[in-house]
From TrEMBL:
Source superkingdom: Bacteria
Species this protein is from: Caldimonas thermodepolymerans
UniProtKB keywords: Oxidoreductase
Gene Ontology molecular function terms on file: oxidoreductase activity
GO cellular component terms, semicolon-separated: cytoplasm
UniProt keyword Thylakoid, yes or no: no
One Pfam family named in its UniProt record: DAO
Protein name (Swiss-Prot/TrEMBL): Amino acid dehydrogenase
Keyword hit for Transmembrane: no
Length: 412
């Protein structure tokens, strides 16, 4: 039986949710205050991370923690003023990153990631977006032999446990694979399964166009105007109030602004991140994660996109892009990247949960209200499978994976 659904938030997660619902014949309105794919899903590193079976843990190694506390490096930055408010959630995140708990989270995370490519693939075809995607994987590069050995050992263990493909490159093989490298590195781990996207925001927009072709409607509006009605839910848009039987909250890093209004205190936080494009010289041929530097360089349509690690701050606090400068100082030693494209770096925020798993399922105390957010470091990867899971939950039929580990009720 068909139903009607308001999907709030047109990032990768909301757009894929709406597309799955529309392809199943439901009446869907996708609502965003901007257009589709203009926030976090626009500015990421564009890697569909099939290899990311382990969610991103809070570092526990003493040397990394010391570096963090001193505020050094490009991988991490924080706003001192935000720390007292964020501390309880970061502490829970830290506790859940204990190896045993992290292993448990990995089991559930891997079950979603397993479907990353197989769920993107039909949507890419439906959206005619093959021109944006290359099936070339990405490389993690290491500067010294010990770090390479450790990275290669870890990669081998993960690859064997989860059936992933990878190759280890020594210094010479890496220099051949990336001829624009300006200095010798110890080598790299090449993850061969991931796909890379030359314009992540454009991929979301193509999925949104596929949604419209499937009969879905895209509306501009403020999700915080959501209210319960006799029939279900209604939200104000520029085209007037739109109502439907179901509503899905997919507001990524802003999800809490709405869920709080309905009385839910979910343990969410954000890790902000920045990017800037560079052109004029020659960068890597495929995306490259500089493990020691804590940044990614990805060749994209606008130039080589440099993306940074995590910044702990309030989601809408003014930008403090110090990590971009630190990362650029390191990146330009590796590649000739002379000209920044944008006057100022772009800023986004990874929507995180304290247990490193996304929140996908029914709102505990409101009928026909659904949550789909908290995809942290891999929301671009997980949008399609999360969207499918959400559509299947709304239909009440069998689901692509067991939804229990992602249920909002797990937070009590
Ligand atoms: C630097 C960086 C690099 C990353 N690299 C990768 C990567 O390589 N691979 C990967 O898988 N993931 C990556 N990620 C993570 C990924 O980008 C996110 O997990 C993902 O984009 C989250 O998608 P989303 O749809 O949940 O949120 P968003 O894309 O942020 O979408 C939320 C939407 O809600 C809308 N919205 C907010 N408030 C309102 C309101 N009141 N009313 C109406 N609309 C509203 C916004 O306009 C926005 O469109 C990276 C993130 C960063 C920051």
């Amino acid at each position: 039986m068909t139903t009607s659904v308001l999907v709030l938030g047109a990032g990768m997660v909301g757009t894929c949710t709406a597309l799955h619902l529309a392809l199943r014949g439901h009446r869907v309105t996708l609502v965003d205050r901007k257009g589709p794919g203009q926030e976090t899903s626009y500015g990421n590193a564009g890697i569909i991370q099939r290899e990311a079976v382990q969610p991103y843990a809070f570092p526990r190694e003493p040397d990394v923690l010391a570096k963090m506390l001193l505020g050094q490096g490009a991988a991490l930055h924080y706003h001192w003023g935000a720390l007292p408010a964020l501390a309880p959630r970061l502490l829970r995140y830290w506790c859940n990153s204990h190896p045993e708990r992290h292993a448990a989270a990995t089991r559930h995370y891997a079950r979603l990631i397993e479907h990353a490519l197989s769920e993107h693939e039909p949507l890419i075809r439906a959206a005619g977006a093959e021109d944006l995607v290359r099936q070339v994987g990405y490389r993690v590069v290491y500067r010294d032999a010990r770090a390479l050995q450790q990275g290669a050992d870890e990669a081998r263990a993960v690859a064997q446990a989860y059936g992933l493909r990878h190759a280890v490159l020594d210094a010479q093989a890496l220099a051949q694979a990336e001829p624009a490298l300006r200095m010798p590195l110890a080598g790299a781990v090449h993850w061969l399964d991931p796909w890379v996207v030359s314009d992540p925001g454009e991929l979301v927009q193509r999925y949104a166009q596929a949604l419209e072709r499937a009969g879905g409607v895209i509306a501009q509006g403020d999700a915080t105007t959501l209210r319960a009605t006799a029939r279900g839910w209604a939200v104000r848009t520029q085209a007037g109030e739109v109502d439907a039987e179901h509503a899905v909250v997919a507001l990524g890093p802003w999800s809490e602004t709405l869920t709080r209004r309905f009385g839910y205190r979910l343990p969410l936080f954000v890790k902000r991140g920045y990017h800037r494009h560079y052109r004029g010289g020659e960068g890597p041929r495929i995306p490259l994660l500089d493990e020691a530097g804590g940044y990614v360089l990805a060749p994209m349509r606008r130039g080589v996109r440099l993306t940074t690690g995590a910044e702990f701050a309030f989601v809408d606090a003014p930008p403090t892009p110090v990590q971009v400068d630190r990362a650029y100082a390191q990146a330009r030693r590796l590649f000739d990247l002379p000209e920044p494209v944008e006057a100022q770096p772009w800023m986004g925020a990874r929507p995180c949960t304290v247990d490193m798993l996304p929140v996908i399922g029914p709102a505990p105390r409101h009928a026909r209200l659904w949550f789909n957010f908290g995809h942290a470091h891999q929301g671009f990867t997980l949008g399609p499978v999360s969207g499918r899971l959400m559509a299947e939950l709304i239909e009440g039929g069998p689901t692509v994976v067991d939804p229990a580990p992602y249920a909002p009720t797990r937070f009590g």
